[in-house]
């Protein structure tokens, strides 16, 4: 309750500063050669200029600045602190003039965090030395320098730190939840857009932490190399990841007019990122760094203008993700503009928005886009459910077909047993009965009965082979197909030509796979023999690297393309579907038929 009340007070009430009681003055050292004593002498001679707004804002500069803070009541000043409210000043020196000029502290983001006079995300300098004059040297040459100079009591500073820690914690927690949400969706759906979103939000959070000095405070407090590079690194990384996410979120693919420019922009930013992270002391290349830092905002603004124009065009066409992204980015740009104008000294903002405007804009943008991603995930879930329903319906239809085919096969088997086996056994029984009743001519009758029983045995053997191709088990798939073709050729009604390629290691394939291939070829051949009226047929079974092809051609009477599939084709289609294959049929009346089947090989695809 106490922290919540403190947060509300911090958001609604601008903590009063004491700058009106103190006159700050500034001296610009363009040559960057002045010592502290020389700066003090110039101050005593009236060479400093009054800092009207207590806001040091030269922008991009090549100079060093000296700020003078005279103190009238040294006793009252012992409880005060001078706050340079910018976490990214490279080098600061803090001097006090009492009996003599003394150096009290050296700090900045070129120095370890522990060198700061007071633990604070920006730079706080206590006025507790009893001095009548304090000098602050601020050095950020060849970069942009903005530093609001605020005098506060220690109690006010403590209240500000407590409130800022609470707000930073709340906003960081929200962003971390969004990152976890994006990561969860990526793991669940394997959709890359959620993964890019999680990385994009993470880079944005790191940039916010770097911008507010939290990164230097908690993540890289002893680094000399990274603090001054942290903000441009995370800005560039964020720009690259934002475009990567945007391409997936709004559906910008190859061939889209925005795709190629996006690739170019990302390449330029990655080059800038490599230059920024180049492992050398960039102070040796200050002029190059100066141009790099000045070109980055200009180039990024041009790109943002291009992207915004493209998104507006997409939104006008009804692209829902573009509308959502525009809404989110508009909120962020609004808050970013306000905070930038504040840091440039152009406007005054309430304390909360002055310190957390950008962070708040980021959180609101992420919340808006997260709602869009949640809607996308909901659509994905519905599509998946619809696909599962369709798959279930297809599976049911396939099962019904298989059951129907099995029933038809049982009926055909029953009819054949009844018509062929039953009739032959009846005739054999009659011959045997006649031989018993009339011994005369019994030898002839017994011979006829024996011939009938041999036919029964032969027929039963054929039926058995049709039910379970024993030849596959004994001699292999290729030999079984050859036997099948030889039996057909023995009838003298048709000539079957075989082309068998591969399957030398067919034993490695499952038995069910080989049996199904045999059944498919068997059914196609039986259809040719029974219905096609063909004199010639070609059967090809070819094993490829990861699939096999079955091609069966005949010169029979054919059938109309687009006509309803005969029952035998529905049976074959069910078997092909069972093996995840593809069935194609080409046929015309009196022009024969060609059936082309492609089946993936088990374990190869």
Can you give a write-up of this model?
The protein is of the alpha+beta class and 605 residues long. The protein folds into three domains: 17-154, Sandwich (Immunoglobulin-like); 160-378, Rhopdopsin 7-helix transmembrane proteins (Up-down Bundle), CATH 1.20.1070; 475-605, Heat Shock Protein 90. 58% of the residues lie in helices and 16% in strands. The protein is built from 16 helices and 15 strands. It has helices at 2-12, 36-44, 74-77, 154-189, 192-211, 214-218, 227-250, 259-276, 286-316, 320-343, 351-437, 442-467, 470-475, 477-490, 511-532, 567-578, and strands at residues 25-29, 49-50, 55-61, 64-70, 80-84, 91-97, 101-107, 123-126, 133-139, 143-153, 495-501, 536-543, 547-554, 582-587, 593-600. The strands form three sheets. Strands 2-1-4-9-6-7 form a six-stranded antiparallel β-sheet, covered by helices on one side. It has a five-stranded mixed β-sheet with strand order 11-12-13-15-14, with helices on one face. The protein has a four-stranded antiparallel β-sheet with strand order 3-10-5-8. Helix 7 packs antiparallel against helix 8 and helix 9 (286-316) packs antiparallel against helix 10 (320-343). Mean pLDDT is 81; it is low at 1-20.
């Amino acid at each position: 309750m106490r922290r919540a009340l403190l947060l509300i007070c911090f958001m609604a009430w601008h903590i009063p500063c004491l700058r009106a009681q103190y006159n700050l003055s500034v001296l610009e050292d363009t040559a960057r050669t002045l010592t502290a004593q020389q700066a003090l002498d110039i101050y005593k001679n009236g060479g400093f200029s009054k800092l009207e707004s207590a806001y040091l804002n030269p922008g991009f500069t090549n100079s060093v600045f000296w700020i003078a803070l005279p103190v009238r009541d040294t006793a009252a000043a012992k409880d005060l602190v001078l706050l340079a409210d910018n976490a990214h000043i490279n080098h600061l020196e803090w001097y006090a003039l009492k009996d003599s000029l003394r150096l009290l502290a050296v700090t900045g983001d070129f120095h370890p965090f522990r060198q700061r006079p007071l633990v604070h995300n920006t730079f706080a300098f206590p006025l507790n030395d009893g001095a009548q004059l304090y000098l602050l040297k601020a050095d950020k040459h060849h970069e942009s320098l903005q530093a609001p100079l605020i005098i506060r009591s220690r109690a006010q500073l403590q209240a500000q730190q407590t409130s800022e820690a609470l707000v930073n914690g709340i906003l960081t927690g929200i962003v971390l939840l969004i990152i976890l949400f994006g990561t969860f969706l990526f793991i669940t759906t394997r959709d890359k857009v959620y993964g890019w979103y999680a990385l994009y939000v993470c880079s944005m959070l790191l940039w916010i932490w770097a911008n507010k000095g939290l990164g230097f405070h908690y993540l890289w407090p002893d680094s000399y190399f990274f603090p001054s590079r942290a903000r441009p690194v995370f800005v560039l990384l964020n720009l690259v990841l934002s475009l990567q996410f945007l391409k997936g979120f709004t559906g910008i693919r190859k061939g889209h007019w925005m795709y190629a420019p996006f690739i170019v922009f990302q390449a330029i930013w990655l080059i800038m990122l490599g230059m920024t992270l180049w492992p050398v002391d960039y102070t040796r290349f200050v002029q190059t760094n100066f141009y790099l830092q000045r070109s980055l905002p200009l180039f990024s603004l041009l790109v943002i203008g291009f992207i915004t124009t493209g998104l507006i065009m997409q939104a006008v066409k009804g692209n829902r993700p573009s509308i959502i992204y525009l809404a989110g980015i508009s909120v962020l740009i609004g808050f970013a503009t306000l905070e930038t104008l504040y840091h440039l000294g152009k406007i005054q903002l309430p304390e909360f928005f002055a310190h957390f405007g950008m962070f708040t804009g980021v959180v609101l943008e992420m919340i808006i886009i997260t709602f869009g991603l949640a809607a996308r995930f909901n659509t994905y879930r519905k599509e998946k459910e619809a696909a599962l329903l369709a798959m279930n319906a297809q599976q049911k239809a396939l099962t019904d077909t298989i059951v129907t085919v099995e029933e038809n096969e049982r009926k055909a088997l029953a009819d054949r047993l009844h018509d062929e086996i039953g009739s032959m056994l009846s005739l054999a029984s009659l011959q045997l009965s006649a031989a018993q009743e009339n011994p005369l001519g019994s030898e002839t009758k017994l011979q006829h009965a024996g011939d009938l029983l041999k036919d029964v045995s032969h027929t039963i053997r054929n039926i058995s082979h049709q039910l379970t191709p024993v030849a596959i088990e004994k001699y292999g798939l290729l030999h079984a197909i050859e036997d099948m073709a030889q039996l057909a050729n023995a009838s003298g009604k048709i000539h079957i030509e075989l082309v068998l390629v591969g399957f030398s290691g067919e034993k490695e394939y499952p038995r069910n796979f080989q049996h199904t291939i045999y059944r498919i070829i068997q059914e196609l051949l039986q259809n040719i023999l029974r219905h096609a009226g063909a004199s010639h047929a070609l059967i090809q079974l070819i094993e490829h690297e990861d699939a096999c092809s079955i091609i069966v051609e005949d010169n029979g009477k054919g059938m109309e393309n687009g006509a309803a599939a005969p029952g035998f084709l529905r049976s074959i289609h069910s078997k092909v579907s069972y093996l995840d294959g593809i069935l194609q049929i080409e046929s015309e009346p009196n022009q024969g038929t060609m059936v082309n089947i492609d089946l993936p090989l088990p374990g190869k695809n």
